[in-house]
């Protein structure tokens, strides 16, 4: 059975662990470099990106995760996680992992009180799961992806902006797929991106 590690310093990591286990994966919290070195895929959850980045730096995890992603480790990043993977964060020099060729703006939709839910539309993907029904996106102090490189495929969109993108084994969402009953983002990550067998 494949092991999924979920960065578990802050934010909604417990929901990702629950979702992964419900889909048949062995999911474990990751809070140090030793744990990060042993997983078959990693999830970087929502939360506060600056805080998570500083904790990753404090526990000597940034370089290790960056190196493992460079070696092909599948990674799912949601909201703050997408910020931490972005090569460019507008107006910020915060600690980051990088490697995902996108430019983001933090909290671009507004403050916590301006969080919202909305249907998102399918962009460039032929995965049949997306065609079943609309995907509901939960946006909480969400970033906006302003630009993507040619290597980045836009999977889902909202109001003309990418909200789920893929670059090789990296999948990044600006919304919170773990907060709805819809499991398709995680299923797409585990099976289409990471190549894990269906349980």
Q: How do the strands and helices of this protein lay out in sequence?
A:
Blueprint lengths: L2 E5 L5 H10 L3 E5 L2 H4 L4 E4 L4 H10 L3 H9 L4 E4 L1 H6 E4 L10 E6 L10 E7 L12 E5 L4 E5 L4 E6 L2 E7 L2 E4 L10 H10 L6
Would you write up a description of this structure?
This protein is an alpha/beta fold. It has a single domain (3-193), classed as 3-Layer(aba) Sandwich (Rossmann fold). The chain is 25% helix and 31% strand. The chain has 6 helices and 12 strands. It has a 9-stranded mixed sheet. A 3-stranded mixed sheet has the order 5-6-9. β1, α1 (13-22) and β2 form a beta-alpha-beta unit. The protein is globular.
Quick structural overview:
The protein is α/β, with parallel strands linked by helices and 199 residues long.
What helical percentage do the residues reach? Answer: 10-25%
**Largest sheet, if any?**
9 strands, mixed
What's the CATH architecture? 3-Layer(aba) Sandwich
Q: pLDDT under 50 segments (min length 5)?
A: none
Tally of strands: 12
Mean pLDDT: 92
Strand order of the largest sheet: 2-1-3-4-12-11-10-7-8
In CATH, the topology is named Rossmann fold
H and E order: EHEHEHHEHEEEEEEEEH
Distance between the termini: 9 Å
CATH class category:
Alpha Beta
> For this structure, what is the CATH homologous superfamily?
Class I glutamine amidotransferase (GATase) domain
Radius of gyration: 15 Å
Number of helices, where a helix is a run of at least 4 consecutive DSSP H or I residues? 6
Decide which structural class fits the backbone: alpha/beta
- Count of all domains: 1
Strand content: 25-35%
Which overall shape is indicated by the principal axes computed on the Cα atoms?
Answer: globular
């Amino acid at each position: 059975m494949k092991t999924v590690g979920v960065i578990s310093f802050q934010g909604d990591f417990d929901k990702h662990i629950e979702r992964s286990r419900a889909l048949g994966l062995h999911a474990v919290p990751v809070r140090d470099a030793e744990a990060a070195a042993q997983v078959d895929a990693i999830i970087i959850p929502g939360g506060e990106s600056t805080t998570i980045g500083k904790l990753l730096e404090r526990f000597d995890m940034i370089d290790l995760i960056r190196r493992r992603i460079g070696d092909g480790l599948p990674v799912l990043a949601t909201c703050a996680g997408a910020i931490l993977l972005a090569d460019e964060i507008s107006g910020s020099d915060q600690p980051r992992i990088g490697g995902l060729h996108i430019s983001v703006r933090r909290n671009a939709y507004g403050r916590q009180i301006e969080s919202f839910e909305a249907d998102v539309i399918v962009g460039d993907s032929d995965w049949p799961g997306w065609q079943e029904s609309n995907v509901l996106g939960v946006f909480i102090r969400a970033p906006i992806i302003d630009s993507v490189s040619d290597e980045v495929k836009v999977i889902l969109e909202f109001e003309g902006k990418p909200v789920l993108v893929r670059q090789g084994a990296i999948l990044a969402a600006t919304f919170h797929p773990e907060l709805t009953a819809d499991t398709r983002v995680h299923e797409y990550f585990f099976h289409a991106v990471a190549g894990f067998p269906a349980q």
